[in-house]
Amino acid sequence: MLPMTNRGKPKAKGQGPFAHSKKNPPNPANPTIRGYFCRPMYDTLNTLLLPIDKHRISEDMGYREGQIGHAILAHEEEGIPDIEAADIVIIGCTEQRGAGLLHESSAADAVRSALYNLYYWHHDIVLADLGNVRTGKSKTDTYAALKMVQHELTEMGKLVVILGGSHDLTLAQYNAFADNKELIDAVGVDAVVDIHIGSPLKSESFLMDLLTADPNYMNHYSHIGFQSYFVHPRLLETMDKLRFDCFRVGRVREQMEEMEPVVRNAHLFTFDISAIAHAYAPANTLTPNGLTGEDACILMQYAGMSTHMRSIGLYGYRPEHDLESLTAKQMAQMLWYLIDGRSRGLREAHIDERESFNEYHVTFSEVDTLFLQSKRTGRWWMQLPDKKFIACSYRDYQVAASNEYPERWLRFQERS
């Protein structure tokens, strides 16, 4: 059973999501040098990251004008490029000892090979690829290196995308926030819930560390796409008592639009390819069932649209099990939709710009509240009794208009 933990305190206002962004640039007292990062940051990243070889990835074919491989800012032998203008930064991590595999993963380069060949439609989004994190002597060393890299990049206001590697690398994602004492929401997409306490493999038990660390900075966790026959019923009961949300794959597929508010609230997103059905991701040998390839792309698009999102990890891909690189191509297309979502998210108005929203005043069960619908993206928000707005869906509005409490309202109130 999962023990209750003490929640950490969130950081002060201004130190949360996108504290360093295009609207809030890094401190001018710590400027970047033309073409390179400020020296300390550059030295840290240069020490921890290995350059990529685009010639090898492209099989010496190069890239045509318009392809991602032609446009992306890449860390090659010449050094780490200036990524001050970058919106999304990709890093690879070859660590998979947490899954009992002693050799380094080639997953990141396999996904790059497929991604770089795709066409670059979103010129308002600047992409960078800083190569692979150096693998440590132990998996704990690799966790530490990955955590440091993510910390440096998120401090610059970048959305960091990690190509793993085993799923336990999510711990490094989380610890980059925990070290900063930042209270976060996280979303995991996986066919299983990785809380197998007796397992010797960290990839099968890492969620226990994530959800029960003390002090704990996990404000809320949502699990998308679990398959019931892989999960003990009592585990789901415990997750529910902790006010964490778990969504069975059948419900996700039937009501995909209901997952958008779940993902929109998150700062951390972790995706294991075992959640995708084998037919769409042949490298998934766990189960024939799961999300479709399109479902996975939609979830990634939702992640890109979130203005809170700061760290995304794609894990569990083993190229040696793939067929015609179809899983790598699936993951590359998921990244394409992440970029598309980021582009759409930039168009969203701030919640205070009321002229950009349709307002709907609703009374249900003697509760007066306000629903907002964006005129730009069609997304919905609902107001709680404390006047705070939270992400919701059109269905939540319909339920409230029928004089009933939306489930999302009740769950949020339970956690308050």
Percentage of residues assigned to helices = 25-40%
Helices and strands, in order, run as HEHHEEHEHEHEHEHEHHEHEHEEEEHH
Major β-sheet, in short?
A: 10 strands, mixed
At the third CATH level, what is the topology name of the largest domain?
A: Arginase, Chain A
Number of helices: 14
Q: What is the strand content?
A: 15-25%
Choose one word for the global shape: globular
Going by CATH, the homologous superfamily of the largest domain would be Ureohydrolase domain
Give the number of DSSP strands.
14
Q: How far do the termini sit from each other? A: 23 Å
User: So what's the CATH class of the largest domain?
Assistant: Alpha Beta
Low-confidence stretches: 1-37
Structural class: alpha/beta
Q: Rg, please?
A: 21 Å
Mean pLDDT: 88
The total domain count is 2
**Gross CATH architecture of the largest domain:** 3-Layer(aba) Sandwich
3D structure, described in words:
By secondary structure, the protein is an alpha/beta fold. The protein folds into two domains: 308 residues, Arginase, Chain A; 62 residues. Helix content is 32%, strand content 18%. Strands 1, 2, 3, 4, 5, 6, 7, 8, 9 and 10 form a ten-stranded mixed beta sheet that branches. A four-stranded antiparallel beta sheet has the order 11-12-13-14. Helix 4 links the parallel strand 3 and strand 4. The protein is globular, with a radius of gyration of 21 Å. The N terminus is likely disordered.
